[in-house]
Structures are given as structure tokens and as C-alpha cells.
From TrEMBL:
Keywords: Signal. Pfam families: CMD. Gene3D superfamilies: AhpD-like (1.20.1290.10). The lineage of its organism: Eukaryota, Fungi, Dikarya, Basidiomycota, Agaricomycotina. Residues 86-139 form the Carboxymuconolactone decarboxylase-like domain. One of its GO terms (molecular function) is peroxiredoxin activity. This is Carboxymuconolactone decarboxylase-like domain-containing protein. The keyword Signal applies. It comes from the Eukaryota.
Length: 228
């Protein structure tokens, strides 16, 4: 088949637009293969200042994998001071605590399940796996009904992570954490770590409410994935 010159012009025009789109996406600082988001619309526009143009965005980049802003960051940057405070607080919660990394990621993933925050789960499932959570752990975190302290749960998670999951359930669903649940976790953690555990679970309840209410990456109505 021979293409007419007008068809070629249309095709060239189209290709130009695709490559222009590619350039604006990579100004977020990532190559297409490294994407963790689908970039579907949220309830506010994404703001992605190019690298070197906004110190707050650049600081967020510095603590993201591969220096890439997430769709979450693009939503936060509509309110720059909120984005900056969020960066400080969650940088500390994520990177400057003394909790076992499996426990920290269990808290985050469990809260994603309880609040049906699929975006939070999708971002953290790979982090949880690299911290040491197995598919069996992830399935217990995904499927166990709230407030369960069944022996099966303890058999798979071990006593320490099971105590952590119960703590996450109570602080998320009931706010008020009963003494036996608090003391159950206290057996494994010192005072500093109890404060870090409470800041992590409280903080990721903020994250989940934020990503759901603003429909970050259009994941509000997507079910939390099933780990395989
Ligand atoms: C980071 O970049 C590497 C190399 O380009 C890539 O293999 C990896 O998937 C990226 N990770 C994330 C989470 O984007
Ligand atoms: C926080 O953690 C990061 C990453 O591990 C580290 O580079 C930094 O020094 C820590 N900050 C403090 C104040 O401990």
C-alpha cells in the first residue's frame, strides 16, 4: 500500500505529539520503564515542576526511588507547604525509625487493606516484599478480618507481627487501643518504638484517607490487589 503524502504528514504530526508527551513525562525525572503510577487523573491536577525549578519538589525527589515524583507528590504539590511538611514527616516515619522493617511495612499494608486504599497497597507491596514479607504474610494481611487474633494468623505471621497487626486494626478501626492490645505489642518494642509504631499507623491512616479522598491515580474504586 502506498501512503499519500497527507497521510505521512498526519503520521509525523502524531509521532511528534507522542514524543512531546514523552518529554514532559520524563521531566518528572523517570524513564518510562521505571513507572510505578498509571498517571490516571486525580480529583485535582498533578503539579510536576521540572527538576531544578522547585526546591520542595527536588527535596521530595531526593527521597523517592530513582528520583521520581509519584502521582501522590503531584497531588500534594498543589499545596506546596503541605507537600513540604509531608515530606519531612513521612521521610522520618519511613527512613528514621528503629522498627523492624517488616513490621513497618505490615502496618502500612494492613492500613491500606482496612481503609481500601489500593494506591497505598500498590506502592508498598514491593517495598514490603523487599523488607522481607512473604506472599503468605501478604495474604494474611490482605484477607484476615479486623480484630482477629486467631492461631492461624499467629502461625503465619509469628507473635511479633501478629501483635503489630492487631494494634494496626484497633488504632485504625476503633481509634481507642485497649490495654491488652497495646501491651501485646509492648512486649516486643521499647518506648521509642511504641511512639514510632503509633506515628506510623496514625500517619498511614492520613496517607490512606488522602489518596482515597483525592482519588490519586484513579485508584479510589479499584479493589486492593490480591498478592500472588
Ligand atoms: C528504578 O530504575 C531501575 C533502572 O532503570 C529500574 O529497573 C527499576 O524498576 C526502577 N524502580 C522503580 C521503583 O521505579
Ligand atoms: C535518616 O535516614 C536517612 C536514610 O537512612 C539517613 O541518611 C539520615 O542520616 C537519617 N537522619 C537522621 C537525623 O538520623
Amino acid at each position: 500500500m502506498i501512503l499519500g503524502s497527507s497521510t505521512v504528514i498526519v503520521v509525523l504530526f502524531f509521532l511528534f505529539h507522542i514524543s512531546a508527551l514523552g518529554a514532559s513525562v520524563s521531566s518528572r525525572g523517570h524513564a518510562a520503564h521505571a513507572k510505578r503510577d498509571d498517571d490516571l487523573p486525580a480529583r485535582v491536577p498533578y503539579i510536576f515542576p521540572p527538576p531544578g525549578t522547585d526546591p520542595i519538589a527536588d527535596h521530595i525527589r531526593s527521597r523517592r526511588v530513582n528520583g521520581t515524583l509519584l502521582d501522590l507528590d503531584g497531588v500534594l504539590l498543589n499545596a506546596r507547604l503541605v507537600a513540604s511538611g509531608w515530606d519531612d514527616l513521612f521521610g522520618i516515619i519511613r527512613d528514621n525509625n528503629t522498627l523492624p522493617p517488616t513490621m513497618r511495612e505490615l502496618f502500612i499494608l494492613r492500613i491500606a487493606v482496612l481503609n481500601e486504599a489500593s494506591y497505598e497497597w500498590i506502592q508498598h507491596e514491593p517495598v514490603g516484599r523487599s523488607a522481607g514479607l512473604s506472599t503468605d504474610h501478604l495474604r494474611v494481611i490482605r484477607f484476615t478480618p479486623p480484630f482477629s487474633s486467631e492461631k492461624d494468623v499467629r502461625n503465619v505471621l509469628g507473635e511479633q507481627l501478629a501483635a503489630a497487626m492487631l494494634f494496626a486494626d484497633w488504632i485504625t478501626k476503633a481509634v481507642r487501643v485497649p490495654d491488652d492490645v497495646f501491651n501485646g505489642l509492648r512486649k516486643f518494642l521499647n518506648d521509642q518504638q511504641m511512639v514510632e509504631a503509633t506515628a506510623t499507623t496514625g500517619g498511614y491512616n492520613l496517607v490512606s484517607r488522602f489518596v482515597v479522598a483525592l482519588n490519586v491515580d484513579d485508584k479510589m474504586d479499584v479493589p486492593v490487589p490480591i498478592p500472588t
